[in-house]
Specification:
By secondary structure, this protein is of the alpha/beta class. Helices cover 39% and strands 17% of the residues. β11 and β12 form a beta hairpin. The longest helix is centred in the middle third of the chain and has 18 residues.
């Protein structure tokens, strides 16, 4: 106990602080259409040890059943990720280069952060040009969330920077059209710069951000997770997900015990001298000092006080969290300035390599996505909270009456297959559910029994059968887990799962 308590309560090797132009504020550069930014940010990216990023989009899930669930296989989770990244639009993209510097008197390495919020237009077409107009989805709850955090939608729609992917740029054949959309290509060049310099990219729970970055600036997302990870790794070979470090490192786990691993919570816990109202106070010489660049050499862009859920400020918080996590990993930053022969000293650090290109999946599935190998593998520190889901033991049913609840479904099935035949029932929505049987053969028996009862629906035995409550009305349909996957793969966005299943044309 003494050793564990010592590990939990030990002070970090260094703490964090920041300085800005305004007392108690972090100034974030706002970039809109017409602002000059390319040359200055190019220089910052080239000089940075790492670049933190964050994105704000018009939604995450088009319907509740497109959220990621515990019962989703890796393939289904990817299909939901693909749908989200390809159907929703980006409104803001945050980039925050962290540039190392050494204090002349103390010799301590600190960082200068340069947070930028790029306001993006959801459309890549020119103003008034509807021949090449874009369509995208909006999620009401996401828009309301952004509105409550002071997001200015007018800025995105009227003054945002258009964006153009590499593939779409090549598809623009006519030279006049290419010149029309070169505003869009310009912002994409910053993404190309991150790739060409193999910069260390840092995000927090960033799989969706990376998917959007690939879809909007590179090419349509491939059809499989393995191919997606391999193509992302070819373009962005050095990615860190701070949430994965929090889940995988025991020291950080103890430090964050009983605390949320959301970005704002991690920022408050790991960077208290930045997030607290008094972070502007003087700090010790041993502290890692994060200063914020709060002036514009070009004088053409506006600086605003950053706030949570603004992309540039969230990117800043992510970078600060990363520097503090490095401290708990035993990583010092002297190498960022001391060895000019190493072009990328931070991502080459042996203590950081176990976490490099390991991204947290969309659901706490006990796995980690390894973008280096293109595989999904178990995460060693994961503790199973729920009974293990056996996909081969699952039946999908949809279209039943919305008055049926958990006890109704389980009770009807138990009368036929036995009281212990059903392990659990997961409601996708009010008229669709996944049922996990204890044995795989129950799946085939259930589907065969449904087919038999439907053939003899007017037979007295069928009418009195316990399962008739589920199949009443003739609208209930059923399939195995592959059927569920086929429905998710359909690119429609129906509100009810039963309507989605009908639109997908799956056999049932």
């Amino acid at each position: 106990m003494a050793a564990r308590r010592g590990l939990l309560l030990r002070r970090p090797l260094c703490s964090m602080a920041t300085s800005t132009s305004r007392k108690g504020k972090v100034e974030v550069k706002q970039v809109r259409r017409g602002d000059s930014y390319h040359d200055s940010l190019t220089s910052l990216i080239q000089s940075a040890s790492f670049v933190a990023l964050d994105a704000e989009m018009t939604g995450v899930a088009s319907t509740p059943w497109r959220d990621s669930f515990e019962w989703d296989s890796a393939d289904v989770r990817f299909l939901k990720l693909l749908h989200s990244a390809s159907r929703f639009a980006l409104l803001q993209f945050g980039l925050c280069p962290f540039i190392p510097q050494r204090d002349a008197s103390s010799g301590v390495v600190s960082f200068v952060a340069h947070p930028h919020t790029f306001h993006l237009s959801p459309s890549s077409s020119s103003e008034g040009d509807y021949d090449d107009d874009d369509e995208f989805l909006c999620q009401t709850s996401s828009l309301h969330f952004l509105a409550t955090h002071r997001h200015d939608f007018n800025t995105s729609l009227r003054h945002g920077l258009p964006y153009l992917s590499r593939v779409r740029e090549k598809a623009v054949a006519a030279p006049p059209a290419l010149r029309t959309e070169s505003c869009a290509v310009g912002f994409r060049h910053l993404i190309d710069l991150l790739s060409s310099h193999n910069k260390l990219i840092v995000g927090h729970n960033c799989i969706l951000d990376i998917a959007h970055m690939f879809d909007k600036f590179i090419a349509p997302i491939p059809s499989t997770m393995e191919q997606f990870m391999k193509e992302v790794h070819q373009i962005f070979p050095n990615i860190i997900d701070t949430k994965h470090i929090m889940n995988a490192n025991q020291t950080v786990q103890l430090l964050m015990r009983n605390k949320s691993k959301s970005l704002s919570s991690a920022f408050s816990s790991l960077c208290p001298t930045i997030s607290s109202a008094g972070y502007h106070r003087l700090v010790r010489a041993s502290d890692v000092n994060v200063k914020v660049q709060a002036h514009d050499d070009e004088g053409s862009s506006l600086f605003n006080s950053g706030a949570k859920h603004e992309a540039g400020y969230d990117a800043f918080m992510t970078g600060c969290v990363f520097t503090q996590l490095c401290v708990h990993l035993g990583i010092t930053f002297d190498q960022c300035l001391s060895d000019p022969s190493i072009s990328d000293p931070l991502q080459s650090n042996v203590k950081l390599k176990p976490y490099l290109n390991h991204l947290y999946p969309t659901w706490n599935s006990g796995t980690v996505l390894d973008f280096t190998t293109g595989t999904e593998k178990p995460e060693g520190t994961y503790k199973q909270k729920y009974p293990k889901v056996e996909l081969k033991n699952i039946v999908l049913i949809w279209g039943f009456s919305s008055v049926l609840k958990y006890k109704n479904l389980k009770g009807c099935i138990a009368k036929v297959f036995g009281p212990d035949s059903v392990i659990s029932v997961f409601f996708i929505d009010a008229t669709a559910a996944l049922i996990q049987f204890r044995k795989e053969e129950f799946v085939k028996d259930f589907l065969a029994l449904k087919e038999s009862l439907e053939r003899r629906k007017d037979d007295p035995i069928s009418i009195l059968h316990p399962l008739s409550v589920i199949f009443e009305g003739g609208n209930t349909k059923a399939g195995d887990y592959n059927t569920y996957k086929d429905v998710i793969a359909c690119n429609q966005s129906k509100v009810l799962f039963k309507d989605q299943a009908d639109a997908s044309g799956v056999a049932c």
